[in-house]
Amino acid sequence: MKDQAAVRHSIKVIGHRNPDTDSICAAISYSRLKNKLDPEHPCKPCRAGALNRETEFVLKHFDVPAPQLYADVSPQIRDVDLRPMPGVDGEMSLRRAWMTMRDEQIDTLCIVEGSALKGLITVKDIATANMDMLDARVLAEAKTSYKNIVETLNATVLVGDIEGKVVEGRIVVGSGSAEQMERAISKGDIVIVSNRAEGQLAAIEMEAGCIVVCAGSKVSRAICLLAEEKGCIILSTNFNTYVSGQMITQAAPIRHYMITEGLLTFTLDSPVEDATKVMATVRHRYFPVLDREGGYLGVISRRNLMNLHKKQLILVDHNEKSQAAEGLEEAEVLEIIDHHRIGSLETDGPVYFRNVPVGCTCTIVYQMYQENGVDIDPPTAGLMLSAILSDTLMFRSPTCTPVDQHTARDLAKIAGVDLEQYADAMFEAGGDVTGKTAEEIFSGDYKIFTSGETRFGVGQGSYMSDKNRQASEALVGPYLPTALRKQNLDYVFYMFTDVRTSSTELLMAGEGADQVVELAFGTGLENGRAVLPGVVSRKKQMIPALMRALKQLAEEK
User: Fold this and answer.
1) Which of 102, 262, 336, 396 has CA 20 to 30 A from 524's CA?
2) Cβ burial, residue 148 (10 Å; 0-12/13-18/19+)
3) What radius of gyration, in Å, describes the C-alpha atoms of the chain?
């Protein structure tokens, strides 16, 4: 439960869907800065999608683990305070179970073996069991231990060893004459008797498995010796015969009555919305919560769901809802660190918003390290350097500023790498499409934008070699209509950017997409693609041009 609370209360620093290198590296480097500045409010780097090959290369090169995946930040059961009710042993008696429920003010107990959930028992199950206990063989059928009987009747063992022994016969109340008792008792029965010596002797002579002497009555030494000789257990209780007869059936173990089929359980990863729907369909009050390995953690009720702790987020490298992780509206945004245009995202309250017109989010993060006088370790420097090289296409992008270049060269010194050689290796690794599917390549660096009523997506791949670029085009080109349909967009555009020549081949899908591109860039298409010399930036060159074209087309309608 402590680990659950630690995970829940950590602030998630997360980039956009289909994260690029800047999105991942900014999340990691900014988390590290926040943790140094404010360790009382720990931050955890996260990602909203799969890593692309370039980012995988970067993380491996600097030996940094990938952030945890949070594609959906909607509330989960882990965001709710569970009731840490310990699991119980299936050998627990019905009476002990009822007393536990009464004392803990809970109507459900979870039966576990080790940490594995075996079943449930509710107060209704106990009531039903008590009403149905008319069978004299119920304790034998339930393989009830004598330990349970001793506990239930608050009895004392006068004769015999009860360790490991279970009831084998019926329950008999020895209230008649000795002759009547002899006719009623069979070998192994458990006989409830009073202080009458003849009744006690009759039960022992008929080879009863146990006699329960009631009302604290004395048992003679002779009877004890005879019982020991016959292998008969003698228990003494202060309850009278009537009460003992009523209570003894409550010694049956709860495993005999527990529910094992169709258990309704949740995991820490279960969405709260789904749990709410399930709870509304049944009359159970408490539901077990399990970890990913099936281990029992505690229980949850409808009341617990009312005390929901929203996930706290810091957004990096984006500020548009369409690019954020699913469920953002159900989370609490604390900060936004970005270098893009200000988009459509709204927050419930004021947040710290830092938006700087530089080429990379990690340039802003570097500035924040400097402002706070925090030293940057080599791996963190390597991550931030990689992000700047990626976002600025090694300073070739028009989004690149002198600040980005100066920052990258400082970070290269700290990271201990040759900037040009490292950039070549990083871009070559990122452009390798060997073994990848069209969808994987397409999703590697892809964002959705909105212009008026029009929704469109723009993806980008950056390549150091013609071979990798052409292989990527051959895979992604035919996939674009499928992506358009799956995401219910008006248009999809994909930039195949040649880093060395600072040019882009643009492919597109959607009715009228070619007209949009012709209007945006004043160029015709050849074989369904537009060749755009000097265009390498999605943020500064592609999106503004497409937005202007879409606005013009909308005005002409």
Assistant:
1) 396
2) buried
3) 36
Are β-strands 233-236 and 156-159 bridged in parallel, bridged antiparallel, or unpaired?
antiparallel
Return the pLDDT at 433: 83
Cα distance from N-terminal residue to C-terminal residue, the chain: 59
Locate 36 and state its tokens. 């140094």
Q: In 3-state terms, what secondary structure has residue 419?
A: helix
**Residue 198 neighbours by CB under 8 Å, 6+ apart:** 177, 178
Host H or E run for residue 143: none
Domains contained in the chain, CATH given: 2-75+310-430 (3.90.1640.10), 78-129+256-306 (3.10.580.10), 134-251 (3.40.1390.20), 438-556 (3.10.310.20)
Angle, vertex CA 446, rays to CA 440 and CA 449, nearest 5: 150
8 A C-beta contact, residue 77 and residue 266: yes
The answer to whether the pTM exceeds 0.90 is no
Question: Which positions of the chain have pLDDT values less than 50?
Answer: 1-7
For the CA atoms of 415, 419, 424, 430, the dihedral, rounded to the nearest 10 degrees, stands at 40
Residue 482's φ and ψ, nearest 5 degrees, are -65, -45
Q: Which residues, in sequence order, are CB contacts of 475 under 8 Å at separation 6+?
A: 433, 436, 437, 438, 441
Name every residue whose Cβ is closer than 8 Å to that of residue 271 and which is 6 or more positions away in sequence. 72, 74, 75, 76
What DSSP line would sit under 243-257, residue for residue? Answer: HHHHHGGGGSBGGGT
- Report pLDDT for 336: 96
Rounded Cα gap, residues 418 and 399, in angstroms: 23
What 8-state DSSP symbol labels residue 282? S
**How much is the pLDDT for 327?**
92
Q: Residue 8 has what pLDDT?
A: 53
Question: Could you tell me if 24 and 15 are in contact, meaning their C-beta atoms sit under 8 angstroms apart?
Answer: yes
CB–CB of 449/543 below 8 Å?
yes
H/E run at residue 426: helix 419-431
Asked if residue 100 lies in contact with residue 108, where contact means CB atoms within 8 angstroms, the answer is no
Q: How far is the C-alpha of 158 from the C-alpha of 220, rounded, in Å?
A: 11
- How many C-beta neighbours within 10 Å does residue 478 have? 12
Token pair for 61: 């090169």
Predicted local confidence at residue 113, as pLDDT: 93
DSSP 3-state of 70: coil
